[in-house]
């Protein structure tokens, strides 16, 4: 089977973002069994991180390599953002479309004919019609990391600058329209799968899901030797910064026991978080940590008090796989059907977090039982190898190879 991956972002080993890790995992899994080509957008900085023994054919759409290139992309990106007649609702800029067309034309001229084309991320899903024009005989599959209309709607409801009801309707029309035209869509979240089936019942037979990649920490033996509350993720991302600050102000500062520590674990910490650690010695900002397992093993618990975001949260799966008691809310558990008080503590309000933490050590047996249940839950519901086998089997059927 010939598979063409078209990815909005460059997947490489040790890529920092969760979506890139998922693409990297499935890309390399397919490359063991099939003839795989990757067409991806790549900067010079990212390209230098590539292990050049990769088992697939790479077709890089390069940008940011020259000053002229950087200036041109910047100008065209701004034009895309503010041009009222933009085709992709700001998700895809004119310069990237130009690069994509160039690479698709190169592949078409050499008579390359993939059986399956996988469009990674909404950015690429929106180009479905363009891709189909170059490869009309190929089956086109959408790989939806997040159902973007969901996150966009939350930003509209929060009245975030630049996010309007008109743009939401435009995105809904574009995204759902593209998914309807794809031969199959694989959502990375079962909650997004459920939403899509409700939004588009006529397409439900073409919708499925896969398990997103997560680092499996099942070898961690949780044994709390500290009173550390751990929050981890890329600490320069706005959703993580807002969530950490919310927790500090509304929960951490109001706990009865002042011997707790708040550990903010992740790369590129925002200056607001660094300043916080300078003002309060109980707040520890680690910066990049190569191996987080010691932190997970010795902490008291992990939190994911997310105030925004959509789609499945890989950090939550990783905490559950480690058997670390987890406190999170509806956004954190989106697409993860774990049971409150059995596999995690559901905390929707600041008062919920305070209540759980103030009584946290009252029942050691309950925490140990929860730790065991978490690991069993992840193993039973989020097996990546089984997910890949089902994913490939579906593609073989779509391509008429089985």
TrEMBL record:
Record-listed E.C. numbers: 2.4.-.-
Keywords: Glycosyltransferase, Transferase
EC category name: transferase
Keyword Transferase: yes
SUPFAM superfamilies referenced in this protein's UniProt entry, alphabetically: UDP-Glycosyltransferase/glycogen phosphorylase
GO molecular function: glycosyltransferase activity
Protein name from the UniProt record: Glycosyltransferase
Protein source organism: Faecalibacterium faecis
């Amino acid at each position: 089977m010939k598979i063409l991956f078209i990815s909005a972002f460059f997947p490489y080993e040790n890529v920092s973002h969760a979506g890139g890790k998922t693409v990297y995992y499935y890309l390399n899994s397919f490359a063991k069994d099939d003839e795989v080509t990757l067409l991806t957008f790549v900067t010079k900085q990212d390209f230098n991180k590539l292990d050049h023994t990769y088992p697939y054919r790479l077709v890089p759409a390069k940008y940011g390599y020259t000053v002229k290139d950087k200036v041109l992309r910047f100008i065209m990106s701004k034009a895309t953002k503010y041009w009222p007649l933009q085709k992709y609702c700001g998700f895809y800029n004119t310069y990237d479309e130009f690069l994509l067309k160039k690479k698709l034309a190169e592949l078409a001229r050499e008579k390359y004919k993939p059986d399956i084309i996988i469009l990674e991320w909404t950015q690429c899903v929106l180009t479905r019609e363009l891709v189909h024009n170059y490869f009309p005989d190929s089956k086109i599959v959408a790989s939806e990391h997040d159902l973007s209309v969901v996150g966009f709607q939350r930003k509209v409801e929060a009245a975030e600058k630049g996010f309007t009801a008109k743009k939401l309707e435009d995105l809904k029309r574009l995204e759902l329209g593209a998914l309807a035209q794809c031969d199959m869509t694989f959502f990375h979240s079962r909650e997004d799968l459920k939403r899509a089936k409700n939004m588009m019942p006529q397409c439900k037979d073409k919708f499925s899901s896969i398990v997103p990649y997560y680092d499996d920490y099942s070898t961690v033996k949780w044994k709390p030797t500290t009173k550390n509350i751990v929050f981890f993720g890329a600490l320069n991302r706005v959703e993580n910064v807002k969530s950490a600050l919310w927790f500090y102000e509304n929960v951490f500062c109001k706990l009865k026991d002042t011997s707790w520590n708040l550990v903010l674990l992740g790369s590129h910490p925002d200056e607001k978080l660094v300043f916080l650690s300078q003002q309060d010695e109980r707040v520890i900002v680690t910066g990049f940590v190569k191996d987080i397992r010691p932190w997970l093993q010795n902490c008291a618990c992990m939190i994911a008090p997310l105030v925004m975001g959509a789609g499945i949260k890989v950090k939550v799966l990783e905490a559950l796989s480690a058997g670390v008691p987890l406190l999170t809310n509806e956004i954190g558990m989106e697409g993860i059907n774990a049971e409150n008080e059995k596999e995690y503590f559901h905390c929707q309000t600041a008062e919920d977090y305070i209540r759980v933490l103030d009584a946290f050590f009252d029942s050691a047996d309950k925490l140990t039982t929860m730790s065991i249940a978490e690991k069993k839950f992840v193993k039973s519901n989020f097996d990546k190898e089984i997910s890949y086998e089902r994913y490939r089997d579906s593609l073989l059927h779509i391509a008429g190879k089985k």
